[in-house]
Amino acid sequence: MKFFKKLTKRFPILKILGNRYVLVIIFVGVWLTFLDNYSYFENRILDKKIEELEANKRYYIQEIKKDSTSIRQLNNPDQTEKYAREKYYMKRDNEDVYIIEFEDSIPAEEQGTKSL
Predict the structure, then answer these.
(1) Rg, C-alpha atoms of the chain
(2) Could you give the CA distance from residue 28 to residue 47 in angstroms, rounded to a whole number?
(3) Helix (H, G, I), strand (E, B) or coil at 116
(4) Which of 23, 55, 97, 107 gives 91 a disulfide partner, CB atoms 3.0 to 4.6 angstroms apart?
């Protein structure tokens, strides 16, 4: 006991840290910060995942809006024909379709194989 009294006289902060309420508060703080399932560090990781998922949600909502406008346009027969001609190179029975590709529009991989 004399040893602890000498220490508390030399270091008065130990008297405060020796209080059981302070010890419990320190223990709970360390427990919640590092050891608990809902610790501070775990919450930071989960918050980052939530932000990433919300960004994905915003992206997909924008894509849904774009697709819904495309679908509305394709309900018009003229737009459907235009889309089929541009994307799938479809043609009417009495016409010819010529596809013109420029060198800068062809990917580099295809250019290497065509020159062989």
Answers:
(1) 35
(2) 23
(3) coil
(4) 97
Amino acid identity, position 77: P
Q: Which two tokens stand for residue 15?
A: 């008297």
> 92: buried, middle or exposed (CB in 10 Å: 19+, 13-18, 0-12)?
exposed
> Between vectors from CA 62 to CA 54 and to CA 106, what angle results, nearest 5°?
115
pLDDT at residue 111 greater than cutoff 70: no
Half-sphere exposure of 54 (CA within 13 A, CB side): 6
Alpha helices in the chain (DSSP H): 2-10, 13-17, 20-30, 40-74, 77-88, 108-114
